[in-house]
Design brief:
The longest helix is centred in the last third of the chain and has 25 residues, at 261-285. The protein is 49% helix and 13% strand. A seven-stranded mixed sheet has the order 3-4-2-5-1-6-7, with helices on both faces. By secondary structure, it is an alpha/beta fold. Helix 3 packs antiparallel against helix 4 (83-94) and helix 6 runs parallel beside helix 7. It has a single domain (3-285), classed as 3-Layer(aba) Sandwich (Rossmann fold). Bound molecules: adenosine-5'-triphosphate and magnesium ion. Residues 16-17, 40, 44, 143 line the site of magnesium ion.
Length: 286
């Protein structure tokens, strides 16, 4: 069964896109069928994998969600019963393959306008509707934007699991609390069944304040049922260098002339994370 994982924290720059990209690349290399959805108007992830996000012939996630919205509206009025055909067509056209081995539905600049375009109460179910049509994948990973918006709620409603990213600083940790609060509210109103898989500490530098941050996350996790991952992602310049070359760290490692030792640490961190995620899911689904 497809596992849909939302990568989240409305605090900017904590590593959501990096983590989504690396996990996508790792699972694809393991032979898993992976789809990544870029739910961010910054379209960073789409850029990093050379996906087209401004080509009129290739629907983006915004086009797909708007089309589903339209089709559902029509079907409510019983104008057509071709809903599934219509959805299938635009969904198929929106899926792009990447050199990383995973598929992507690209983001769109206008996603930043979500409040205007997806403000109906029922819009919160649009992404869930899309995902219910995508049963060919082992993993669907959703990269989210650094802002609370209808899109973020759509993600929490659509996904099975949430992975919350944070750095050691207080603002990022406050973002973690906001995510947990938002999810609790959606679950209370029975709109979401999402389970917080864990909190991931990123850009670790082995400093004392980072240890304290991890301890704080453990305390918070215990009372809120969302323990931090044992895996911590170290800070490494290659995380940025790879993306500047439009590659995941794995693909960057395989590039000719690269000092492979310089990426070993961070690659191992992300690989450990991928394993820990699988273990946590397995335990939850036992
Ligand atoms: N482990 C890491 N070590 C060093 N740099 C990192 C690491 N993880 C991410 N970065 C860098 O931090 C910056 C922000 O990362 P990223 O874009 O993944 O964050 P984000 O949460 O998606 O940001 P936004 O909220 O703007 O979408 C990027 O330059 C990225 O390369
Ligand atoms: Mg991002």
């Amino acid at each position: 069964m497809t596992k849909t994982i939302m990568v989240s924290n409305q605090k900017g720059g904590v590593g959501k896109t990096t983590t989504t990209l690396e996990l996508g690349a790792i699972y694809a290399r393991k032979g898993k069928r992976v789809l990544v959805i870029d739910l961010d108007g910054q379209v960073n992830l789409s850029m990093y994998v050379n996906a087209k996000y401004d080509d009129k012939n290739i629907p983006t996630i915004r086009d797909v969600l708007l089309e589903i919205k339209e089709i559902l509206k029509q079907s409510e009025l019983e104008i057509t019963n071709d809903m599934e055909d219509g959805e299938d067509d635009i969904i198929t056209r929106s899926i792009q393959t990447t050199d990383e081995g995973f598929d992507i539905i690209a983001g769109h600049r206008n996603l930043s306008n979500a409040l205007a375009e997806f403000s109906d109460t029922t819009d919160v179910f649009l992404l869930k509707e899309l995902i219910s049509c995508l049963d060919d994948y082992d993993y669907i990973l959703i990269d989210s934007a650094p802002a609370r918006s209808p899109l973020l709620n759509m993600g929490y409603v659509a996904a099975d699991y949430c992975l919350i990213l944070t750095e050691a600083d207080k603002a990022s940790q406050d973002g973690v609390k906001q995510v947990v609060t938002d999810i609790k509210l959606l679950k209370k109103s029975k709109m979401s069944n999402i389970v917080i898989l864990g909190i991931l500490l990123n850009k670790n530098e082995d400093l004392k304040n980072q240890e304290e941050a991890y301890e704080d996350l453990c305390v918070f996790g215990k009372t809120n049922g969302c323990m931090p991952f044992e895996t911590i992602i170290g800070k490494a310049a290659s995380a940025t260098t790879a993306k500047n070359m439009y590659k995941s760290i794995h693909a960057y490692r395989d590039t000719k002339g690269i000092n492979k030792r310089s990426v070993q640490g961070i690659l191992a961190d992300f690989e450990n994370l991928a394993i820990e995620i699988e273990k946590r899911i397995k335990k939850l689904e036992k």
